[in-house]
Amino acid sequence: MSVISNDLAMMLARAPVEAAIAAARFIGRGDERAADQAAVDAMRAALNAMPIRGRVVIGEGERDDAPMLYVGEEVGAGKGPELDIALDPLEGTTLTAKAKANALAVMAIAPKGGLLHAPDTYMDKIAIGPGYPPDLIDLDEGAADTVRKLAKAKGVAPEEIGVCVLDRPRHGGIIEALRGVGARVQLIDDGDIAGVINCTKPETGIDLYLGQGGAPEGVLAAAALKCVGGQFQGRLVIRNEQERMRAEAAGIEDLKRRYALDDLVSKDAIFIAVGVTSGSLLRGVRFDSGTIRTNAVVMNSATHTVTELHIRQPA
Fold this sequence. Notes:
Layout: H1 6-12, H2 14-24, H3 32-48, E1 53-58, E2 74-75, E3 82-91, H4 93-97, E4 104-111, E5 122-128, H5 143-154, E6 162-166, H6 172-180, E7 184-188, H7 192-197, E8 208-214, H8 215-228, E9 231-237, H9 241-249, E10 259-260, H10 261-264, E11 270-275, E12 286-288, E13 291-300, E14 305-314
Parallel strand pairs: 1-3, 6-7, 6-8
Antiparallel strand pairs: 1-2, 3-4, 4-11, 5-8, 5-9, 9-10, 11-13, 12-13, 13-14
């Protein structure tokens, strides 16, 4: 049996499902910290009950700052496959607190050594979904030229290209360039993992993701793209001495390196996302008449499968 089997993927999906349910109890309550802590506690408990030997390579922070699911923490029952685990028990704490769309519980898993230990810094990112010629995107190419190239490859006008960008002042130039070439720009408040994954689903209308977001989230998103044959490039953004030290502590030697997808996720991987609040990707958690309903997507690069789950369980 492959280390990255569908049976393993379905078992591991239990952890983000439990995190999503725990976080959902805080939707709209305005308490980001409580929602995040509930998700962390639930995901950790679920992982520790599983027959795996897992090590968190991307988590809630360094050990001194995060009492649970910190980088380097060992999870699982101490037997079974050795796994690298990247996780965000609640991607979209603000979205959850404000009852906005697209909050997720997410996790990526690969055999030991398969995921880059990305430091807690920003990363410049570009991503597209499957079905395009290899090496189509270039992180160092201008936004307008990227849209024109993507439109040509897709056989449409630039006006038909949808681009997802985090709504931040730092992206003003990118947004202006995209609109200047006629692209449709979808601005999101938070949750750039969901933003990247939008590229994998044609029904979202998003063809391209551009902009700067968290480096750990870049690895999680790259795992999803690896499962479906998408493309991704990223480069760390080091703004000060503290961030440089973080990167060096994570083993990053070339701070200006441009990472391709396989640099971030070097082995076959599983990616799992569970909706906390409903959005363009997944329906959120629903509490209804003594039952809890969740909606998850499980992607596996080893088997090239994408499975959507609709789970119903007692409250």
